[in-house]
Each structure stands twice: as structure tokens, then as C-alpha cells.
Amino acid sequence: MICLLVSLLQVTLLNAQSVIDLSGTWGFQTDVMDFRRGSLSPRYNHVLQETIKLPGITDDYQIGYKNPYKYIDRLTRKYEYMGPAWYQRDIEIPAAWKGKKIMMYFERTHWLSSIYVDTKEVSSIDYVSVPHNHDLTHFVKPGKTHRITICIDNRFQYNTHKWNHAHTEFTQINWNGILGEMKLMAIDPVFVDDLQVYPNITDNSVKVRLQVNNETKRQVKGMATFTISGKNYNLKDEVVVASTDSVTFIETTIKLGKNIKLWDEFNPNLYQINCQLHTSDGKNTYQHEKAATFGMREVKQGKNHIILNNHPIHLRGNVENAVFPKTGHAPLDDASWERIILLMKDYGMNHLRFHSWCPPAAAFRMADKHGIYFEIEMPMWGKDAEPNEARYNFFRREIKAILKEYGNHPSFVLYCNGNEITGNFDFIEELTAEGRKIDPRHLYSGSTARTRVKSDQYYVSQQTNKGPVKVYEGLPSTDWDKNLESDVDVPVISHESGQRCIYPNFDEIKKYSHSPVEARNFEVFRDLLQKNGMLDQADDFFKASGALTVLEYKAVIEALLRSGKSAGFQLLSMNDFPGQGYAPVGIFDPFWDSKGLVTAEKFREFCAPTVALLRYEKSSYFNSETFKGKAEVYNFSHSAIENAKIRWWLTDASGKVLKKGNLKSQTIANASVSPVGEFEIPLKNISNQKVTVHLAVNENIKNSWDLWVYPIHQQLMQSNEQVLYSKVYDDRVKQQLAQGKTVVLYPSPENVKGRKSMFHNHFWNPIMFAWAPMTIGNLIHHEQAMFKDFTTENHTDWQWWDILNYAKVIEMQNTPQKLRPFIQVIDSYDNNQKLGIGFEAKVNGGKLLVLALDTQTDIDQRPATQQLLHSIHNYVNSDKFSPQESVDESFIQSFLIK
After folding, report:
1. In b/e form, how buried is each residue of 798-835, taking b as 16+ CB within 10 angstroms?
2. E strand intervals along 271-314
3. Closest CA to 413 of 435, 385, 441, 391
4. Cα-only R_g, the chain
């Protein structure tokens, strides 16, 4: 588009001519060279030559550098733009606005917004977390048309960490534009600049603090009238106002009465306070109205827990990383945030940590409405606390702005400066202490996972002075917790728990067709998998690794629920993180759509306000043993459970009840993890099967755990005339194969070249943390005959613990494409090599089965290993053993250490 002549704006006036809606078409130009400010164009008031619609971002209109690349470590932004961009309109200021204060308001922009009125720059704001509200009073004339030109500069205005989630290309992109509500407002020159409400639940009152600004330069007097309303509730009060200064603070306490209700996750009762200010200077009268939503709640620091309304709470949380690929920015509408908040509630969560960013008002509104506890942070990370006074001053302004803008929201429970901060902790203490002083309605912490400061009221970390509180993966035993490590001087929340990587789902690629970003890295990963001959297994890799992650998250969450002295956890994360190398760790994809790995109902069995828990020694047993369980109930619901009926039962794979029993009926305390009894189950009549132990409290609270029971096998791996077992590939093996017979080769792991075998899938993602063994779980070809006598699904479960921790991973990329190991290890998606622990092949006329497994160490304590070896023995001695693919002897020798 060229040389567009911007016509006079046809404005929409609202609220008695006091608001002009600024959404719609604006003149537009890019300024990649950042030269317009220093050119003659502003001086001569040149018309911008293209158009754009606001609210919106440049990516919506394919403005910027058309990106030809395929980024590996993140989604690829289709049109990159970072620099000043100019937006312009001619606006008639209504003549009726004479004597008014005139403001231009943008709900959210990125990062610096500057306003030019005609030829002069008149205002500049660089908040990141709150709206920009520009005062144009002294620069526009009512009754006149002005050319308003806005410069939005999304470059980093200070030397801050490039990964913070308010700006990073890793999550929401570093967009340029204006979003949400945008308007020109006129208000009387005596107005309520700030309205803060401080609940007191002891006497059912609120302290209301007003900041009244008086720009008349005359004394004014009047009345502030308050209306407080809620469901079946209405109250009015008033206070005298007298102001001789430009800024006057007024405080009053309003008694709310016995019918006022508290706010928490179970009963998110909300109230609105409306303040009508009427003043006069004796000659003129002035009116202004301001409203706020609040909830009756108080938060305090307890010994081990956050105390809300005098009751301990336990945080079951997710780390919110500003992942919004559909739009490239955080949504500003209620519906989008309500969807996320309700998903959290559906999956048993009550907490969101906003990692190095602060969400817009819609997020707070929906959390207030549905009862979710927020931790809010500034766009601060890493070295941002190193000495830099300009940067320090930015953060000093930002924390005050956040507390002022969002402090009334009852969902705003916790504040932390930022993520994993390093540098000058005197500055971090300054910010934290200042926050506590300004606004006591929240608890404060200096930094996640780094140095403690004096003013800390809680601590989010992987470690305390008593040891690690992190839980990244589970164990086949559940008789452990993090109580000792969590029991310090402030409540401790486990930092970024989980982080178990899932193989990418390439079907997601098409979901980006109408987004500002594309999953071009997925295309690279998919093409590499195809090149390596395994594209047909992509969905199997995704589902098998995903099932393992769900298994791990159940174990992780239950461990932290068993930890009664823990203040909670923050899972990283329920949805995928598309940066830092791409971390598909979620049970939701980046669009907050379910991956189909676990239902909300199943997830709530182990993540909810009340959860049945079971401590036991291990997951795999010999049938000569007795299962011993110690039952507990995690109860952080709204009340104790009176006369709780507790029962257990054991079922087989078909659901048939094999054993059952009851524990003593009892009252289960609230805000605690309570032991409720122990039981034993002799396993002597159970053989070679998966069984499930169930625990129920009053039938509506249920949880279950899978166990595997096997017979003892005294004689294993016995050679006969047709089948030779050998740990080495020697002349005897070669002769057996040359005769067309069978060999089972089971070299000791220390004699195998290859990678370490690991039960857990990779931590976070293998691109950022490129540490061995770079694998993402295992695909078990469970339908094949070697597993006929070994119960397994296509993914690893806890019975595989005593197998995989004694194995070695063989590099198999150079084998025939159709040869698939029956225990197939899933490689990192940026490598996609064929890997295996067990495979079969034809070699030199004979039949060979290879199992890279230690079959001796602690074998009397490894029931699953014994059963797998027994099943393989039956298989190789049957007519079912008939390998279809051939490999050269040189391949066998290539992975053996001589």
C-alpha cells in the first residue's frame, strides 16, 4: 500500500462523551533503521503510508522479515520484526472536554510506547506488566483535531535477560503492537487515581485507601461514596474528602457485617467496591467514579505452609510460561483465560506460577472467579540483579506498578521478583522489603531457586539447607517424601517439578497454519526420522514416551503430596514449552489441547484437594512375598472428613477382585497428611501378572497403583542342543549359528559399546541439556512372541525398573530398516537413531537373539528380569522364534568390546 491519506477519525463516544474507542484502522510505517525520530518526518507531521488494524500486532499482517529459516531450539516466527513501528491517526478532541484531564490508554503493549501530538513527543512509558496510560492534557486542545502518532518499540529497553517470558521468542514472541482495550479518556481534574482494598477477616471489615489527585490548584471538598455489592449483598458507606494538595491519601474502614463471605479456592466469593467521588472548589463541581473487585481473604506466612484465612493451604501448581502460539501473545479476553483456569481446576490444580512475567487483567479476573492462587513475577531472570542502575530503576518502577494495578485481586497471593536470579542480592532484598512495605496482602520472595534474602516469606527452590526438595522423577517405591528437606524457617515450594520429555507429536505441525509461528523444527525432526527409516513409528514413540511421562508425574506429585511439611509444588509443566531447545513435557500441547495421554478424571485421582496415598517398598514382587501397604490421606480440602470409611482391594487385569479389606473408620483431619492404617496382602496365589491395589475413602476418593507378581525362577538360561546361551561372541557361537541353530547372546553391559540404559525419559529436553544417554523412554514391541510370558504394554512401567537399570543401549542405525529391536530405545528427536537393548536377527545361517543385559547382579532381587529371561527362554525354544531380517556378523562384533 502506498501514500494513504489518513482521513479524519469518525470516533465513537461513550459514557457521556468521556471515552473515545481507538480500535480500528491506523496509519502505519515500520522503522527498522530507527531513523524516523531523528528525521524531518515528525517535524513536518508527515502522513504514514500504510495501514494496520489495532488492537493487533505486526505479525497479524505479515509485517517484517519473512523468515526462511527452520529454528531448531524454538518455533519459527514467520515474520520477524524488532524495532520501532509507527501508528497514526487524526483525532478530534471533543470541545466538551475543555477543563478535563485527557488520557490515552493502552491495555498492553510491547515494550516502549511514545506519543507524538502533531510534531512533538509528549509522553513515553516503558512498563511491561501493566497498561500504559499517557497524560495528554497539556498537549491537546479540545475542539481541535490533532495528528496522534504512536511509536511502539519492542527492542529491549534495558539490558535484561533475553529469556524472560514477557519478551522471549521461546514462548510468546517479542511482538510489536497494541493489544486489548485502547481508548482516549476525559475525566474531571479531581479524580481517584488509585483505590486499594485491604480485607480484615477478624472483624469483617475492609480498609479502603484512596489516592485522590487534584489538578485544579485549588482547595476542594466533598464526599466519597462507596457501594459494596456481591451475591445477596449490598452496602453503602461514605467518607468526607478535603484536598489542598495535588495528591491526597484518604483511608477509611468499612464494617461489612456478619453476612460477608470469605474467598478461597473452594468458595471464591467476590465483591465489587464502587467509589463515587463528588467534590467542589466552591465554583465548579467535579465527579469521578472508580471500581475494584476484591475478595475477603488474608494470607500469612506459616511454619511450613501458606496460611490463607487462618487455614494452611497446599499448592498444587503449574508453571505458566506465556506459551500462546495461536496468537503469539498472551490473550487479553476473559474466555481464553477461563479455559486455562478451568483446565487447571479440572486436573486438580489450585495454583499457577507466572514464570518471569505478569499476565493481563483477564487472567486475574478468571482466577478470582474460579479460585486459583497466583504467583506473580517481574520480567526478571538470571543476571538481571547484577549492577546496572538503569535496569534497577526499571524494576523498582515495575514492582510498584504491578502491586498498584493488580493488588486488589484475591487470586494474587504470592509475589516473587523473578526466576533463578544471580548478582547483587542486596538489590533483591531491597525490592522484596519494599514490596512487603507497600502491599501486605501478598507473601513475598526474593528469587526462585537461588540465594535467600532476609525478607523472604516463602521459598520456591530445588534445594534447602537441609537437602534437595526437587522431585523430577519417580521411583518404584513410594515409601519416601521430602518432609525433612522442606522443614525450614519459611514455607518451601518444590521448584519446577517433573520436566519429563515426551517425543514430539508431528500431527501438531498442521495446527500452526494460522499462527504467527510454525513448528518448522518438528519438520526437521520428522524428516530426520524419515531419513533414518522410522517415520512409521513416530506415533508409537509419542504415545510410549507420553505414557511414561504420565507415570512419572503421578509418582512426582504423590511424593510431594506425601510431604506434609512441603508448601506445595510447581509442575513444569502441564503444557509443552516450545523453546530452550523445545521441551514437549506436557500432557497438553502448546495450544492447551489434550494430547490424549491421561484424562482429567484419572489425573485427579493423584492430584486433588483430597487424595488417597499408599506407601510401599517396591512395585515388582515374587509370589512368595507379602505386599505391605501404609495408607495415608492427603486432605487440603475445605474441611475434615468425618467418620471416613476406608477400604482397599486388589484386582487382576480383568478387574476381578482377588483380595479386599477395610481399615478403621476415622475422622481425617484437614490441612494435613494423615496415616490411616496399614494392611498386608500375601501374594502366594498370584503368579506372573499385573495386579492393581486400590484405596478408597468414602467411595468418592479413589486411587490405585499397579504391581507385578512373578514366580521365582531357579533355573534360567540353560543351554541345550538347539539353543546356546553365551555372554561372548566366540567360535562356539559362530559354529552354532553356522549349523543353523539358535544363540542367545547376553553380553555384560560393561562389554557393550553404546549408551547407558535409563528408566526415565530425558529431563526437560535433549537440546538444552545434552547429557547422556539422550533417550526418551522405550517402545516395547509387546505383541511379539518373546513377551508371551512377560506382562507388559508398549511402554515401560515400574516392572521395567530392575531390567533397564542393568542394561546397555546398542546403536543400531546401520542395521536393515525393517529390523526393529523388540526392546527399542527412543532416541532424542534431534538425532533419531535406531537404538535397542534386545533384538533378533538371522546371522550366518543361524538365529540370534541379543539382549544387552546384566543377568547376574542382584538377580535374586529382580523378579521382572527373571520373568523376562524365562519368557525369552520359552520363546527361543519354540517354533515362534524365526527372525526375518539378516545382519552381518561384523555388526555384532562392532558393538562388543573385546
Report:
1. bbbbbbbbbbbbbbbeebeeebbbbbbbbbbbbbbbbb
2. 271-280, 285-294, 299-301, 306-308, 311-313
3. 441
4. 32
The mean pLDDT value for 688-711 works out to 97
| 269: its cell numbers | 466469593
Q: How is the chain split among helix, strand and coil, in percent rounded to 5?
A: 20, 40, 45
Nearest to 552 by CA among 796, 885, 745: 796
Quick one: how far is CA 882 from the chain centroid? 48
User: What pTM does this model have?
Assistant: 0.96
The dihedral region occupied by 381, where left means phi > 0, alpha psi between -120 and 50, and beta the remainder, is: beta
Are 459 and 493 within 8 A, CB to CB? yes
* Four-point Cα dihedral 36, 39, 45, 49, nearest 10: -50
Give 578-590 pLDDT, tens digit per residue: 999 999 999 999 9
Pairing of strands 271-280, 742-745: unpaired
Q: Are strands 101-109 and 50-54 parallel, antiparallel or unpaired?
A: unpaired
C-alpha cell at 746: 547376553
Show the cell assigned to 540.
Answer: 508409537
- Which tens digits make up the pLDDT trace of 414-452? 999 999 999 999 999 999 999 999 999 999 999 999 999
Q: CB count, 10 Å around CB of 479? A: 14
Bond prior to 360 in cis (omega within 30° of 0): no
Q: At what angle do helices 334-346 and 361-370 cross, to 10 degrees?
A: 40
Helix residue ranges per DSSP H, 255-321: none
| 696 in Cβ contact with 702 (< 8 Å) | yes
Return the SS3 of 315: strand
Q: Strand, helix or coil at 428?
A: helix
Residue 752 DSSP symbol = B
For the chain, what's the residue count? 898
Q: What is the pLDDT of residues 534-589, one digit of tens each?
A: 999 999 999 999 999 999 999 999 999 999 999 999 999 999 999 999 999 999 99
- Residue 892 φ then ψ, to 5°: -60, -45
Helices then strands, counting H and E runs in the chain, come out as 12, 52
134's grid cell? 499517557
DSSP string, 781-838: -TTSGGGTTS---SB--GGGHHHHTTBEEEE-TTS-TT---SEEEEEPTTT---EEEE
Per-residue pLDDT, averaged over 252-265, amounts to 98
Q: CA angle 869-874-878, nearest 5°?
A: 145
C-alpha dist (Å) from residue 730 to 134, 812, 848? 83, 21, 13
Q: Do 646 and 664 meet the contact criterion of CB atoms below 8 Å apart? A: yes
Give the span between the Cα atoms of 647 and 682, in whole angstroms: 17
